[in-house]
Amino acid sequence: MICFLFFTYVLFWLTLSTIKQINDLNKPEISHQTRFRSNRTLYFVINQLFQLQINLVLIDPQILQHLFIHRLPFDDIHRTFITFAIVEESLQPLISSLHDLKLSMKTSETNSRNRKHLVDHIFIKHHRLTVHVAVLHKYSSYYRIHVNHQSLPKNVHLPFGDKLRAIDYFETELHEYLFYYPRNVSHFLWLYDSSEFIHCNRRLASRMKKKYNIHESMSQLSLIVKPMVHIGQSLNQLQKHYWIAGGTLLGWYRHCGLIPYTGDADFGLFYEEYDESIRSHFLGNPVTHIWAALGLVNDSLEFRLSSGRYVFDLFWTYREGNNARWYGYQAQRSKYRRSLPLFSKVCSGDLFGYRFSVPCSPIEYLDHEYGKNNWTVPLQKDYGWINMKYHSMWNDISWMYAVRLYSPEGHLRSDELAISWVAKRFNYTYASVPSFLNVLPNETVTLPPLKSEFVQVKSQKVEEQKPVEKEEQRQEEEEEEPEGEGKENENEGQEPNEEEQEEDKNAEKPDTEAQEEKQNEEERNQNEPEEEDVDE
Ligand SMILES: *[C@@H]1O[C@H](CO)[C@@H](O)[C@H](O)[C@H]1NC(C)=O
Ligand SMILES: *[C@@H]1O[C@H](CO)[C@@H](O)[C@H](O)[C@H]1NC(C)=O
Ligand SMILES: *[C@@H]1O[C@H](CO)[C@@H](O)[C@H](O)[C@H]1NC(C)=O
Ligand SMILES: *[C@@H]1O[C@H](CO)[C@@H](O)[C@H](O)[C@H]1NC(C)=O
Ligand SMILES: *[C@@H]1O[C@H](CO)[C@@H](O)[C@H](O)[C@H]1NC(C)=O
Ligand SMILES: *[C@@H]1O[C@H](CO)[C@@H](O)[C@H](O)[C@H]1NC(C)=O
């Protein structure tokens, strides 16, 4: 009897307390409330902050993987140190809330003249748990997460705060346990892998301004940078790693901007990640459309994109052995190769407030391209393009596939320009070229008859060698951007149609400016003796 009474009493008490709880928390999360009744849990902290309208975003890569990739339950998380993020605007409200809730907190701050908020990280200690909150500092297209200076137990490795990192804006969703998380977790994790942030060289950049009087031309900026942002974001969306390359990389690192006489922008890509998605994306693209694909997929592939005003080059880089990569450059029918250090990971850099991927060791990369320390001063007139080696000529069959031109609407061109581009350096009859322009490289072809002049005068073959020598010589006269002129050269002497003329004019304009700029710059250089060497 006593037992029964006691049992009834307990039952009554339990029912009462449940009703009370339902009344207290008229919220959808009630179903979890029982499981998280203990105020010692992570859930307790998150919940309290959520009630105060502080939106924590889970950014801890391991936990995200656990919950959303492996789809394991929240209750299985046994980590005592978990990283969340908040946007800068929530920083003050969070700090006051933590005071109100009497939760203990430590912060990491960085002194900086030009930042409103100095707090970069907050560590909320709650029983055995530490909730790490990283502050997302906002830039035009991304958040920066600063390095943590608060001392932590030895066994704790912070996924954010370990290094300076940058991560593109991302959309979030609300989890049933009242924290936010990136809507596309796998993409967030992909971005995280290239989030390490590398600074450009401010010292060199200000030297360029002061000593060489090289300034950015503002009119260039939006015309080049906007399409560049579009290209970078497209490649991110397709999850293809890229890095800004060539003169664009030099501009970023040495000028913290663009080289003033830049007429185009270069991007490098890993051949291992090649698939047709990139070509498809840029065919007929309204912002930057692909207008030429040069080379073969497995050999010297380069996509030339156009914004109508500027040219943007995507170069695929191919692995060679265990410590190098190479990428191609096509001039007329010759193949050149440039070598690069081997790297498998890219980092993040800032260009005018936007995040771009950059090589993680820009100095090593630039040394490779321009010669050790040669790039730290504006290049001299007699600069030899050291990182460019003649490789071979496209053979007859490959050549037919090595040039593909596309209309702004994304159609393969077999108009006069497209035909003459191939036919001009082709020893087979002109008339049959159009049909090859529509043939896929995987289909077998038989060569058409030789051009009549070859049949008649065999010795004329030698003539083909001449432009190559010229090309090499020309390249030696070049400064930083052999591509710029190479492009024009390829169109030279051909009869461009209207559309192409436009393309040409556009390509010429920046280059003419470039020449003038270079001239002025060189004059300045001659008047000014060398200063001390710049060390990094
Ligand atoms: C947690 O709950 C215990 C008892 O359930 C209570 O004594 C304590 O004050 C609570 N702590 C907080 C931070 O609410
Ligand atoms: C996540 O992002 C990747 C890369 O942009 C995309 O391919 C994928 O479809 C996205 N997944 C979802 C569920 O939206
Ligand atoms: C590219 O593929 C073709 C056909 O499979 C092959 O003959 C050629 O050697 C390859 N080129 C390179 C650079 O691997
Ligand atoms: C630097 O450039 C000069 C002039 O082009 C060249 O002779 C020299 O070999 C280059 N240095 C290195 C280390 O590549
Ligand atoms: C060639 O490639 C295209 C698309 O890449 C494919 O549709 C076609 O079947 C291939 N042809 C042969 C003969 O393999
Ligand atoms: C075609 O031209 C290339 C170079 O332009 C040359 O190497 C090749 O031998 C020529 N082929 C024939 C069949 O004449």
TrEMBL record:
Occurrences of domain LicD/FKTN/FKRP nucleotidyltransferase (ranges): 241-276
Keywords: Membrane, Signal, Transmembrane, Transmembrane helix
InterPro entries: FKTN/MNN4/W02B3.4-1, LicD/FKTN/FKRP_NTP_transf
CC per GO annotation: membrane
Biological process annotations from GO: glycoprotein metabolic process
Bias (Basic and acidic residues): 460-473, 504-527
The UniProt record lists the keyword NAD: no
Pfam families recorded: LicD
Principal location listed in the UniProt entry: membrane
Name of the protein in question: LicD/FKTN/FKRP nucleotidyltransferase domain-containing protein
Upper classification of the organism: Eukaryota, Metazoa, Spiralia, Gnathifera, Rotifera
